[in-house]
From TrEMBL:
Keywords: Ligase, Transferase. The lineage of its organism: unclassified sequences, metagenomes, ecological metagenomes. Residues 23-322 form the Amidase domain. This is Aspartyl-tRNA(Asn) amidotransferase subunit A @ Glutamyl-tRNA(Gln) amidotransferase subunit A. The keyword Ligase applies. It comes from hydrothermal vent metagenome. InterPro entries: Amidase (IPR000120), Amidase_CS (IPR020556), Amidase_dom (IPR023631), AS_sf (IPR036928). GO terms for molecular function: asparaginyl-tRNA synthase (glutamine-hydrolyzing) activity; glutaminyl-tRNA synthase (glutamine-hydrolyzing) activity; transferase activity. PROSITE patterns: AMIDASES (PS00571). Pfam families: Amidase.
């Protein structure tokens, strides 16, 4: 697998010629080709190799951006100029974006390398990645199981070692759930922290764009770059962007709440045991876990379905069969 810990380690090894970026990118492409059955990608961008040569030179001469050399896959609901945007649907089979999503453009501006567009549930509606015109995505951990969804292709791509980082979107768990299923890190940022401009909307007042990675440092590095106010998205937050990738000095005890409603009937006993074992493992004099109750929990799912289906019906009405269709 990868012989570097995170993006900073990767950049350092490229600079000292311990690692060739072009060979690194080629290894990702080869791995994708050799494991096509996972079906994590809808589109692969072969020009990523040419872009890698340019970025590698910039790393060596000291002019590279913050994410130089980071190989990123992008969920196929985010726009990239002149690239296909299908949303895993036949409705948009021939469509190419005429502009780039702010979140993606910020990554490109910092010399990240976009390797392709990942499979997902059609129009990001689903939780298993079995609802795609491009076919099911398999879970690299166990190919008899689903990767979760709707960002299943992104989670699977990271878990399978097809890229360093992948972008997903989360409306009602579509980053958090597949990250859990595939055993990788996934972050749903606070709504408005990352601009939604260029995202094909599912439910506009819920959608968030966030990263998957195999380490926390890369999650933080990507969030640092993507965050911030965007004049093209009126719902983006006009707050200072903290340095997420600075190691936190824990000088006081942290109290972590464990919602008891999440340990209800229907939770797999093995999953429950695994969570409880991990809580016990990381409990210390610096971290205290306490039971809490979320009294609104019984109403959350019903409310979610009422609001998101209403917003989705409005957003999908633009695909009217005149300008789009299959």
């Amino acid at each position: 697998m990868l012989n570097y810990k995170n993006i900073l380690d990767k950049q350092a090894k490229i600079k000292t010629n311990e690692l060739s970026l072009t060979e690194n990118v080629q290894s990702f492409l080869s791995r994708i080709e050799n494991q096509k059955d996972i079906n994590a990608f809808n589109f692969i961008f072969e020009d990523v190799l040419d872009n890698a040569k340019v970025v590698e030179e910039k790393i060596h001469n000291g002019t590279a951006g913050k994410l130089a050399g980071m190989v990123i896959a992008v969920k196929d609901v985010l726009s990239i100029k002149d690239r296909p945007l299908a949303c895993s649907s036949n409705i948009l089979e021939e469509f190419h974006s005429i502009y780039s999503a702010t979140s993606v453009q910020k990554l490109i501006d910092e010399d990240a390398l976009i390797i392709g567009k990942t499979n997902c549930d059609e129009f990001a509606m689903g939780s298993s990645n079995e609802n795609s015109a491009f076919g099911n995505v398999l879970n690299p951990v166990d190919k008899t199981r689903v990767p979760g969804g709707s960002s299943g292709g992104s989670a699977a791509a990271v878990a399978a070692g097809f890229c360093d980082v992948a972008l997903g979107t989360d409306t009602g768990g579509s980053i958090r759930q597949p990250a859990s299923f595939c055993g990788v890190f996934g972050l749903k940022p606070t709504y408005g922290r990352v601009s939604r401009y260029g995202l094909t909307a599912f439910a506009s007042s819920f959608d968030s764009i966030g990263p998957f990675a195999n380490n926390i440092e890369d999650i933080a590095a990507v969030l640092n770059v993507m965050s911030g106010k965007d004049e093209l998205d009126s719902t983006s937050i006009d707050d200072p962007v903290p340095e997420f990738n600075i190691e936190i000095d824990i000088s006081r005890k942290i109290k972590v709440g464990i919602p008891q409603e999440y340990f209800s009937e229907g939770l797999n006993s093995e999953v429950k045991k695994s969570i409880e074992n991990y809580i016990s493992k990381i409990s210390s004099d610096k971290v205290e876990f306490v039971d809490i109750h979320l009294k609104h929990n019984d109403y959350a799912i019903a409310t979610y379905y009422i609001l998101t289906t209403a917003e989705a019906s409005a957003n999908l009405s633009r695909y009217d069969g005149v300008r789009y269709g299959y």
